[in-house]
Amino acid sequence: MLGLNGTPFQPATLQLTGIPGMQTGQAWVALVFCILYLISIIGNLTILALVIREPTLHQPMYYFLSMLSLNDLGVSFSTLPTVLATFCFNYRHVDFDACLVQMFFIHTFSFMESGILLAMSFDRFVAICDPLRYATVLTNNCILAMGLGIVAKSFTTLFPFPFLVKRLPFCKGNVLHHSYCLHPDLMKVACGDIHVNNIYGLFVVIFTYGIDSTFILLSYTLILRAVLAIASREQRFKALNTCMSHICAVLAFYVPIIAVSMIHRFWKSAPLVVHVMMSNVYLFIPPMLNPIIYSVKTKEIHRGIRQVFCKSWG
To answer: 107 CB contacts (<8 Å, ≥6 apart)?
Structure first.
């Protein structure tokens, strides 16, 4: 479809959608989202503050944890403006270019999270399989290089997406199925040849989620083999216990992704509300759960939070 000047038609604004079938309960939905945002933002800021101020936490494991917290804040702040506007103020319109920017940041932070979880699995692999070289392998320069590599990889692979979307005409309306902008959602209202978008999208998913998850699985296979070789049952349990927080974080991130993929692949007739809710779980639950997981399962973080509360109430 062409505009009056012969260029591909693109709407000035796109219309966002809340949760289908819950028009009467928008206030409760808004309250739930506000609670999720508060837990996520306060929790991740607390982790960051603890790692910065506590000298005992100036270790590779906690540097990677601070990367994860910083990234989770990025995920939360990427979706926050349009989600709050949709559910709290019933304002459902977003500028087309602003939608592309939001799409870029949501996907970039999501893919960065996968890379950070891979880096954290490497940290656990070195700590358990080669503990004597832990300090020499994971130096500050190495950690910084890994962090910059994760950012560069995510940014460069996602950078073409806004331009690939921008070139398309939009002739199937301007109503999106979520309260934020996602690439698959935009493809549903675009017309013209979207094969390039779909092929490149598949490439990015395999290049990031596929490779990252494969190496995470490989690292834990090697970790498990090393742990089973430990003679003492108590030492085996202690070694595995240092990985539990990371395993929970990996499951919190990848299980929703797998569930979304399975629903899209094998349950295409699923009600729209199922697709919307699963996307919400994928974007909102990991940033909320990660600080809780590490606060409960990691003694040093738990101790640091308890000391802060004791000083506040003392």
So the answer is: 158, 161, 182, 183
Q: What is the pLDDT of residues 74-106, one digit of tens each?
A: 999 999 999 999 888 888 999 999 999 999 999
Which amino acid would we find at residue 305? I
3-state class of 95 per DSSP? strand
* Helices and strands in the chain, H and E counts: 13, 2
State phi, psi for 15 to the nearest 5 degrees: -100, 125
Contact 83, 163 (CB under 8 A): no
Helix axes 272-297, 96-129, angle to 10 degrees: 40
The answer to whether the beta carbons of residues 185 and 161 sit under 8 Å apart is no
SS3 of 175, please? strand
Instruction: Output phi, psi for 201, to 5 deg.
Output: -60, -40
Question: Which secondary-structure segment (H or E) carries 297?
Answer: helix 272-297
- Alpha carbon 144 to its chain centroid, in Å, reads 20
